Amino acid sequence: MVKREFPKQPILCVGAVVILGNSVLLIRRGKPPQKGEWTLPGGMVELGESLRAAVRREVQEETGLRVEPASLAAIFERIIRRNGRVQYHYFVLDYVCRLKGGKLRPASDVTDARWVSQAELGQYRLRPQARQVIQKAFDNIKT
Predict the structure, then answer these.
(1) Reduced to 3 DSSP states, what percent helix, strand and coil does the chain have, rounded to the nearest 5?
(2) Which residues of the chain have pLDDT under 70?
């Protein structure tokens, strides 16, 4: 099992930007890091798992929805330090995804999952990286 907190090396993760009409799928994290915060669904890539398979698995585990990754939207690194030590270190690859089916329900390590309209996004305190990748996805849909 990979040690998430105070790891020995960075951890590879994926995220999903799922757009449906004028809304994006957001989840509220139930575990650290970001416990209680709204963000995009996603999580760690398992050993031997492809990036796209990890996206599909994570979205289904967290929301009950089936998706298909369409394109890579962003790559970023998150390093969180505590008392001078690296508490968390993630490389995150976010994919724009097409909704394939399923029924929306929070599951796994999330406390809520919902479709949030582009107009309502300002009401959610999202990290800058999440806000940027969501905006980029909406912009790409319009062009």
Answers:
(1) 25, 45, 30
(2) 1, 142-143
